[in-house]
């Protein structure tokens, strides 16, 4: 058996005419172009995009070599093998594009949102797709001057996140603070109510400029949070951070007579910020409503 194998190996290695010398003839531009593209193709990296780069170069390379085998060499075997490799590369490219489409997000705005907010938190893309599915991948536009919520009238039935633009928060015409991009628009209102409670906005939210936001319906988001503990913890962290940012923004508006800033972290400030019935202090009542509502909800956990 070993002698037969050695005979076959010997015929493969030595059973052909010996090359007496190198030919001075070149194979033509198509052959060299194909090999140049082949050389560049193997410089691709790893991962889906790296594979897409490699096969994207291999396909035109094998196309050139197929044309070379058909027109220059006139060899059916050379043409057939390179054509087969070309078809395999095209099939692999289609597979990679399909996989990238399945793993990607439906819009550029959602991709930017994921990369700017969720990716730094280590949220997997599949989890973000579940979150995006809860608002049906829909982005809502709010023109400058349009109102998102009116104090005492608009029910608290959703949670919104600002993608672009700026929102003015006011009470009875008095400016309180701004809501900027990548901030929740109604996190204090959301946290002030339990799932079985209803309420209305205590402030008015108006678009300072053309804005775009995403919005989760209250019932659907509660169902998602009840099923997915990881998403529930994620929203808890994000909402807590967002409310803290709003509280510190309001801290700039709180002064005592000596001109010293009040520290909203002090427990004694809770009594100072309690809702007031005095007409001259109704603006402070809204600040107290935010702090009071946030403390009440979090104390209940």
TrEMBL record:
One term of GO molecular function: cAMP binding
Membrane-crossing segments per the record: 48-73, 79-98
Q: Which Pfam families match?
A: POPDC1-3
GO CC field: sarcolemma
The family database entries (InterPro entries) matched by this protein are listed as: cNMP-bd_dom_sf, POPDC1-3, POPDC1-3_dom
Membrane topology, from the record: Multi-pass membrane protein
Q: Where in the cell is it found?
A: Membrane
UniProtKB keywords: Membrane, Transmembrane, Transmembrane helix
Which residue ranges does the record assign to the POPDC1-3 domain?
27-253
Answer whether the UniProt record assigns the keyword Acyltransferase to this protein: no
Can you supply a Gene Ontology BP term from the record? Answer: regulation of membrane potential
Family to which the UniProt record says this protein belongs = Belongs to the popeye family.
What protein does this entry describe? Popeye domain cAMP effector 2
- Organism in which the protein naturally occurs: Myripristis murdjan
